[in-house]
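quick one before i forget lol
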Amino acid sequence: MGFMQKNVNTFLLILILFVSGALAASSVYYQKTFDKTTSKQEDTLVNLTQCRADLENYKFNLNKTMGSLNTTTQDIRRYDELYSTKSEELQTTKGTLEETTKDLQTTKVTLQQESALKNKYKQDYEDELQQKRNLEEQNAILTSQKASLEASIVNYRKHIDATEVCIDSFLEDYDAGLTQAMKDAVDDCK
């Protein structure tokens, strides 16, 4: 036991030195590990800050895109409504166009009939006009003939008047030469 007692102090000192050295070594080790961990933590904090900034940027872009998407969705709905309205208007216009086409066909047929009737009336008018011209020509000819005949009548009347004067003069001369008995016989014959 003597050895133990003597050496206990040394052993304790060695043990204390060993524990102190182990404590110092573990302190240094843990200090280095803590520094590395702190450095990693700072790097991670920087990365986290960058990630937060990126996340905020992505959130901003996401909100912006969502707003744009909502606007686009509203525009699509508005365009869908506009498309529906325009489709209905197109159908209405198409129906109106078909009715107008039918009316146009009816009007075309009516117009063709009226055009044929107009052409008939025009032909009748031209025929009447030609007849009028013919009648005017005949009237001119007849007027000329009438004037010629009236002139002939005037000439014949002059000739008749002259003949009557001549006959009257002859009859007076003849009458003077006739006897009263002959006059009575002529008067009885009348």
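fyi Residues 2-189 form one domain.
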